[in-house]
Amino acid sequence: MLSITDALEEIVNSNPALQFGLQRKLLNLAQTAKFIQPYVNVRTKKEVTVSAIHMALSRAFKSKDKKRPIESDFEIRNVSVQSKLFVLTYRKSSETLSQLFKQAERITSNGGYWTMTHGLMEVTVIVSAKELPTIEKIITAKPKLSTSDVAAVAVLFSERYLKTPGLLHLILQQCAIQGINIVEVASSATELIVYIKEHDISVAFDTLMKRFSLGE
């Protein structure tokens, strides 16, 4: 059985949105206490009053040794931008996948831009807009969705952050705060690529560069 303080720590540390709001004093503690009461009750295995949770929250975020926001320690290696991209989503089939794989080999061998993600029912490709006429001729299936004027904003960071909870949320949060719609997202171990409309490039790039420090 956990104490109220320990339960609060687990709940807040596992929720980047709560961390963000509480550490910056953006959230009303009384309303926050009411919202998380059911979760505290589950973890403590007892009925905890809202007032008790409110007091515990107040003490925790007035303490001198509270955690600093994650971005205080987060550094990025680089932010790069690729514009003039096109996003195509197809219904997944063996024929469409085969045709797309052939296009991937052709485009990447020529140094072109290509990203492909396939789920259970769909497959999405992101490609340079100049390749679109060729793809439309070769891929027999018609795309379910297509989006033009897309840009890729790629954030590169160190391997030491791979075990940092909430890191990807932190990066995506910057777009959300600025009201930038995210068309697609892709990632590798130390790189997160956010696909947005081209008219949002400047705001997204400047926000990331000003929010985070550049490191090795």
Explain what this protein looks like in three dimensions.
The protein is α+β, with helices and mostly antiparallel strands and 216 residues long. The chain has two domains: 64 residues; 140 residues, VC0802-like, CATH 3.30.2130.10. The protein contains eight helices and seven strands; from the N terminus they run ααααβαββαβαββαβ. Strands 1, 2, 3, 4, 5, 6 and 7 form a seven-stranded mixed β-sheet that branches. A hairpin with a 3-residue loop joins β2 and β3. The model has no long low-confidence stretch (mean pLDDT 89).
Strand content: 25-35%
Q: What's the number of structural domains?
A: 2
CATH top level assignment of the largest domain: Alpha Beta
Approximate helicity band: 40-55%
Mean pLDDT: 89
Order of helices and strands: HHHHEHEEHEHEEHE
The CATH architecture of the largest domain comes to: 2-Layer Sandwich
Rg: 22 Å
Question: What class do helices, strands and sheet pairing give?
Answer: alpha+beta
Q: Categorize the overall geometry.
A: elongated
